[in-house]
Specification:
Blueprint: H1 4-34, H2 40-65, H3 72-105
Transmembrane segments: 39-62
Keywords: Membrane, Signal, Transmembrane, Transmembrane helix
Signal peptide: 1-29
Length: 123
């Protein structure tokens, strides 16, 4: 069984996407019919976004009906634990790499510095 709150919010979002998609296509057609918007590119873009939202919502509803009824919490905890372990290792790798580079290049002399004009730049 899917988590109750997750399933209901998913269905609600799919319904809202369907309503927004229908609203976008209807408003675009209404604006073109009344002559409020003369650019066919704007009308086409709004209709394309509306159709995309409709298709996304329908795919979400179909996917929701065909979902395996596993427990959400177990699934989310397993994947988040793996992701945090990987991201922690990557973060430590880049942190120590940056630390080593900083220690290596910190006390190098700037070859572009003119020591005759700027005596404070000399070592």
């Amino acid at each position: 069984m899917v988590c109750g709150v997750f399933a209901s919010s998913k269905n609600t979002l799919c319904t809202l996407n369907m309503l927004l998609g229908l609203l976008l296509t209807e408003v675009a057609a209404w604006g073109k019919g009344l002559g409020l918007v003369s650019s066919i590119h704007i009308i086409g873009g709004v209709i394309a976004v509306g159709v995309f939202l409709l298709l996304t919502a329908v795919a979400g509803l179909v996917g929701n009906r065909n979902s395996e009824c596993q427990m959400c919490e177990e699934k989310f905890l397993k994947h988040s634990d793996e992701a945090l372990k990987i991201l922690g290792g990557v973060g430590l790798f880049f942190r120590f790499t940056a630390l080593q580079l900083a220690m290596r290049f910190r006390n190098q002399k700037d070859p572009r510095a003119n020591t005759l004009l700027n005596p404070s730049a000399s070592p």
